[in-house]
Amino acid sequence: MKLSAKELSGRKRRFIMIFLQLIPLLLFTTSIIPMPQAWAIAPMITSSSTITSGALNPAPIIVGVGFAANVDKFDFSVNTGKTNLKYDSVAFIDTTHLRFNFHGTASTGTIVISAESMAFDPASGESSNEISIVIVAPLIGQFITFKALAPMIVAGKDQAPIVSSNSFLNVEIMSNTPSVCTIDFTKIHAVAVGTCYLKAFQRGNEEYAPAPDITQAVVVSANPTEKISQTKLVDVATALGSAMYNPDSIGGGYASVLVAGTRPENATLVKLLIPSHATKVKTVFLISAYSSDEETSAGYFIARIAAVTADGAAIRRFKEAIEINIPMGAKEGFPYWSYDGIRWYRLLKLETEKLPSTVHAGYFVETDGRIAIFSDYLMLFGFRKPQVPLSVISPVEKLKVLATAALQSVGGSGLGQLKYKSNSDSICSISEKGVVSGISEGNCQISALKEASGNFADTSSKQISIEIIGVSNISKEVAASVNTGFFAHSLTLMKLNRLQTLDVGLCSVYANEKANLFLGTKAKNGTWVWQQISVTQLDLNGAGQFTLAATLNAGQRVRVLVNHVIQMESDV
């Protein structure tokens, strides 16, 4: 039956109305379709337990998150290896700790543990990471032998303690009574009358356990030959001077020490002014001469200044700057400070007798010509002479990967050791003798340091840059058959002053063979003209060096032949 247009239109409107009524139901229905859930990330377990070889039935603790209360031994993968242990069971402590039970006597080896997914609540989608518990050999016991000490007198000769350990490890000594005696440069120095107690200790290492501490006492008496003045204090020259600072003193502390060299006439007066708030503990200041008699006589006196608490603990930093007074040095010298006597840092000149908060050390020239050094650190202070400026010179601006070039240094003073440094180790390396080697493409940064010696401080050069480039493309145009391994060969041009060499590296197949170097120049008509310019004998590795009498120029080519066969050809 054929419908009229009016009937079709009416049916269409009814269909649309029914569809609109069904849309909410459709939307609701699709909204309740369950979506697949993704598993959580793999759980992590750790352990800080340690087991020593010989331990009986060890029970290490495993740490994690969300352990199931009903875990059993089958929820874990445990490999005991060669440890001589048997895995018995696992005990639930809480949701973050489990105890693993093994029986047997432990031998050196490794236990590897991982947790299966069912070890957690809720169950994890994956097993955990693996952890290793290493069973180590027990530490060997050691003991210290500390020989009895001889009595000492104040300002007398320092005593070298005789102490050792059966482990042959270095034994350290500290003074428990630094107000009576101190340890300086491994020797005992008598400071005041009384009984000094010294402790010897050895902390052990990965093989030896710490040794029991040993204490020795030494009696310090007054010097019977020293005359004591009742009217004034006299500065007595000593190799090591010391002074006690009491934080309860009003207005701070003061120490004046006449520090002697190996001869009395080389004694130098050093004064310390300690602010009242520099430290809150009783402190012993130790002052000694670091410079030699010759350096001191020439105006390059260096004082080593240290401090320890009454318990013998070293003090490096103070809350306020200590003022250190030393004589003015030589005219060509400058005030420096140093931690180790190798690296020296020039002191900042101060306009007033106050150290700025932004720096740790500086100096001020007093009206009487003495130098007042202000520092909140204690180390080496005094005068050093600057070296002649140091420079590094490279014979090349560019260097190929795997090629080398010999650098030169100009300047510097004294007999200090010269050290080169690469500031881009992944790009280039440098040997002790200054031979730089290309490692990878990039900008190679090289500098040099000449260490302090005699009156001189150390000095550093400015950085130089050498561009490390890849191996140049080798022309494939050949006039004869090319040997296998063509592209593995190397050819490096070296320039050092007027001397030029061309290093060639072939394979060991050509050991002890004679290699010929040809220079090619392109004529106006486009043809190449070749001329032999050098010959070399290859070594056992097939490597050699051509000496060049003529200068190579851009646009030329070089060719290496062995037994009349072209091994390499490259543009200059």
Please characterize this protein's 3D structure.
With 572 residues, the protein is mostly beta strands. It is built from two helices and 44 strands. The strands form twelve sheets. Strands 16-19-20-27-22-23 form a six-stranded antiparallel beta sheet, with no helix packed on it. A six-stranded mixed beta sheet has the order 17-18-21-26-25-24, with no helix packed on it. Strands 29, 32, 35, 36 and 37 form a five-stranded mixed beta sheet that branches. Strand 4 and strand 5 (97-103) form a beta hairpin. The chain is flat. It starts with a helix and ends with a strand. The model is unreliable at 22-40, 226-239 and 472-488 (pLDDT under 50).
List the helices and strands and how they pair.
Blueprint: H1 5-31, E1 51-52, E2 61-63, E3 76-79, E4 86-94, E5 97-103, E6 109-115, E7 131-136, E8 144-146, E9 152-153, E10 163-165, E11 172-175, E12 181-184, E13 187-190, E14 194-201, E15 214-221, E16 240-245, E17 253-259, E18 268-274, E19 283-289, H2 293-297, E20 302-309, E21 317-326, E22 334-338, E23 344-346, E24 348-349, E25 361-365, E26 371-377, E27 380-384, E28 391-393, E29 398-400, E30 404-406, E31 408-410, E32 418-422, E33 428-430, E34 435-438, E35 442-450, E36 459-460, E37 464-469, E38 490-496, E39 499-505, E40 514-522, E41 528-537, E42 543-548, E43 557-562, E44 565-571
Parallel strand pairs: 1-7, 9-15, 24-25, 29-37
Antiparallel strand pairs: 2-5, 3-6, 4-5, 6-7, 8-10, 11-14, 12-13, 14-15, 16-19, 17-18, 18-21, 19-20, 20-27, 21-26, 22-23, 22-27, 25-26, 28-31, 30-34, 32-35, 33-34, 35-36, 35-37, 38-39, 39-42, 40-41, 40-43, 43-44
